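Researcher: Next sequence.
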Amino acid sequence: MSLPDPTLSPAFLLATDDPGLVGYRLAQLRREQALTPQQQAAVLGISVYSLAGLCLCLQPRNLADVKSIAARMRVEAAGMAALLGVRTP
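Model: Next structure:
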């Protein structure tokens, strides 16, 4: 994995192996869509540094968790819920 800052690699690697972290789902999506972390960050409208932080978040259990993560990342909550597979009412 080629990242602009090699110190980010451990965050991505750690999160990829733990299904309890958002990074696990994002890694699945990167594989399915053949994206690099940089491309995935661009699609999400965040920096690769923010993507690393997002990867280390706990996988949300409900819409309240999604809203919290979305607010921290400054992204739209419904899109984040869909991305992470959390059902919304």
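Model: The chain has one domain: 7-84. Residues 22-33 form the longest helix (12 residues).
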